[in-house]
Specification:
The protein contains ten helices and 18 strands. The chain starts with a strand and ends with a strand. Helix content is 29%, strand content 32%. By secondary structure, it is of the alpha/beta class. The strands form three sheets. It has an eight-stranded mixed sheet with strand order 1-5-4-3-6-7-8-9, with helices on one face. An eight-stranded mixed sheet has the order 2-17-18-16-15-12-13-14, with helices on both faces.
């Protein structure tokens, strides 16, 4: 057995070390000190996946050490996980070990929790899930008070729901989010909240000139996590996302938060570049009049690969670029071209994954 614990005494120094490395890496483009947004030192992860290791007829949670993918180690505590996750983990494991139907050929367990106290547990199998499994899983669901989801090859068994409900308090207002299992959500809830608050602050009144009549374009909007709280800073907002699940969630979240100035369309960043350049029309934009927008700001939060060359050239036309990145290396590559037209006015470090080398950044770039 092992306890997955971290040395919280080291955290302040680790964060400072990250800030120093980031400052050095970005020194070619800015003299600004990064604004630091620390994570809670423990219980910061809202979602996690564990391998289920079977030995001697007993199932245990297991993880892999970095670089050792064939040597799982068994854990019985996961202090970086949310408090709710840590409450649920032993209860789920006990139920699995008390039921051959739940334990047999179970190879993974996923926990998705929220700051507002909701949870979803996904059990993943190397077998077909039948009605007997469903009955056992329903019993466990009743015991836990939270939904269970079953998955196996080409099979998804939803007993109650396949999502959690999150509520985030941002600048005195509460925003509601439906977060669907399997789609992207921010793993660190407090850092997510800090990121939204920083982005709202960086947007100011929406256009930077005081009259508040600018519009926002967001690429890679996901379920509307950033889009919805930012919408009140702008006259109109157009957001794009390629995932159908995320688009559907975003549209539900827009309605649930009673946002009336925001439209989401299912387009990739490359497709939107073609659309705004009038290279070709898209039926998905049939109800959107692109010429009616006065885009003052573009928000991009791309995957680790960063912005492709055409998208990078397209966003460089905007007066203000809000660029949130989960990979400083590709953001730095994009800055080689973006800083030809823009200067960096805000610079932030979001410590999404403390005790690791991972760093996430936020930049506000303004036209020179």
């Amino acid at each position: 057995m092992a306890l997955y614990r971290v040395n919280t005494d080291d955290y302040p120094q680790q964060l400072q070390n990250k800030a120093e490395r980031l400052r050095e890496a970005y020194s070619k483009f800015t003299d600004l000190e990064p604004e630091l947004f620390p994570s809670p030192p423990i219980h910061y992860r809202l979602r996690a996946e564990f391998k289920v290791w079977h030995e001697g007829g007993v199932a245990n949670y297991a993880m892999y050490r970095q670089g050792e993918h064939k040597k799982p180690f068994i854990i019985d505590e996961f202090t970086v996980g949310s408090e709710l996750m840590n409450q649920l983990m032993p209860k789920v494991l006990a139920a699995v070990n008390n039921s051959e139907l739940l334990r047999k050929r179970l190879f993974s367990a996923e926990f998705l929790t929220t700051l507002s106290g909701d949870a979803l547990i996904t059990l993943i199998y190397h077998k077909k899930l039948d009605e007997s499994w469903e009955q056992e899983a329903k019993t466990l669901q009743e015991q836990l008070g939270f939904p269970i989801l079953g998955r196996s090859r080409k099979q998804k068994v939803v007993l109650e729901r396949d999502f959690v409900n999150e509520k985030l308090d941002i600048d005195g207002k509460t925003y509601q989010y439906k977060q669907v299992e399997g789609s992207f959500t921010q793993p660190n809830g407090e850092i997510c909240r800090s990121m939204i608050q920083w982005a709202r602050s960086a947007c100011g009144d929406g256009d930077g000139d005081g009259d508040g009549d600018g519009d926002l374009l967001e690429l890679y909007c996901g379920n509307g996590n950033l889009t919805i709280p930012l919408s009140e800073k702008f006259r109109k907002v157009l957001a794009t996302e390629i995932s159908k699940v995320s688009v559907n969630s975003a549209q539900e979240n827009i309605a649930n938060n009673q946002i009336t100035n925001l439209d989401v369309v299912r387009l990739s960043s490359e497709e939107f570049t073609q659309a705004i350049d009038k290279v070709r029309p898209f039926r998905r934009l049939a109800d959107i009049d692109l010429d009616s927008y006065n885009f003052s700001t573009v928000l991009v939060d791309p995957p680790r690969a960063g912005l492709d060359e055409d998208t990078c050239a397209m966003v460089a036309r905007f007066p203000r670029i809000l660029y949130i990145s989960c990979n400083p290396e590709t953001q730095l590559e994009n800055l080689e071209s973006l800083t030809k037209t823009h200067r960096i006015e805000r610079f932030a470090l979001f410590d999404q994954f403390p005790y690791t080398e991972h760093t996430e950044t936020g930049l506000l770039l303004v036209k020179k």
